[in-house]
Amino acid sequence: MYSDRMGKLAMILATAVESKVSGVKEWGVGEDLNQCLYGWRGDQLVVLSRMTNAMQAKDPDSRFLAVVSASAVLRQGWKIDALSMVAEGFVSDDPDGTDGKSFASEFARGNKSVKEAITISHVEGEMISFITKAYTYRVPKQIVWEEEVFMPGRQRIVGKDGMYPIAMSKALQVDPLGFDGEGEDFYRVVCVNMIRQGFETKSFV
């Protein structure tokens, strides 16, 4: 049971860090986490969807559209009322110097103020929260983590960085399927459908 958003975010962050460390140990430096969606109903985690490797390898626009579709399916099928997303991203130690610039491009050209990070977006009610945890690699297969940065609930997000949470928020406004009595067979069918959306899904109900 996770009674508040901080408890939910803490669990997700711990899981993401553990997955990242395990992936680097097994596959080496540069192994990114696949995007993941956590669907909540009240204080319970009811569904977890992980983007497939095939979808993760596609271009950013295709991945975004996949998340939009998957979020709506999670809302309709599992009647979720909160949604979290884990993704790889970038953070800047110099917000003024990198304002308006692509963090990915700045990192690629060697800007030391921009670092890779695990990012978590959480949408619940009318509030959007973020956690970022920056890291650097250490040869051969180690990660050096920085302290996480929590940005509490905000009611308005603008710009390109808001694409995902805004889409997640809109998905939560979709009406859930209007019947009761869903069983294992129902969720099994929906999970199969989620593969078509580019997500491997596990139901906890």
Folded structure, characterized:
Strands 1, 2, 3, 4, 5, 6, 7 and 8 form an 8-stranded antiparallel beta sheet that branches. It is built from 6 helices and 8 strands, in the order H-E-E-H-H-E-H-E-E-E-E-H-H-E. With 205 residues, the protein is α+β, with helices and mostly antiparallel strands. The two termini are 14 Å apart. It has one domain. The model is unreliable at 154-159 (pLDDT under 50).
Task: Give the topology.
Blueprint: H1 5-27, E1 36-41, E2 44-51, H2 53-56, H3 60-78, E3 82-92, H4 103-108, E4 114-124, E5 127-138, E6 142-145, E7 149-154, H5 163-171, H6 184-196, E8 199-203
Antiparallel strand pairs: 1-2, 1-3, 2-8, 3-4, 4-5, 5-6, 5-7
Helix pairs in contact: 3-5
How would you concisely characterize the structure shown here?
The protein has helices at 5-27, 53-56, 60-78, 103-108, 163-171, 184-196; strands spanning 36-41, 44-51, 82-92, 114-124, 127-138, 142-145, 149-154, 199-203.
Query: How many domains would you count in the coordinates?
Result: 1
Runs in which pLDDT lies below 50 for 5 or more consecutive residues are 154-159
The amount of helix comes to 25-40%
Write down the overall geometry: globular
Number of DSSP helical runs: 6
Structural class: alpha+beta
Q: Main sheet? A: 8 strands, antiparallel
Number of strands: 8
Quaternary organisation: single chain
**Measured distance between first and last alpha carbons:** 14 Å
How much strand content do the residues show?
Answer: 25-35%
Mean pLDDT score: 87
Task: Write down the Rg.
Answer: 17 Å
SSE order, as H and E? HEEHHEHEEEEHHE
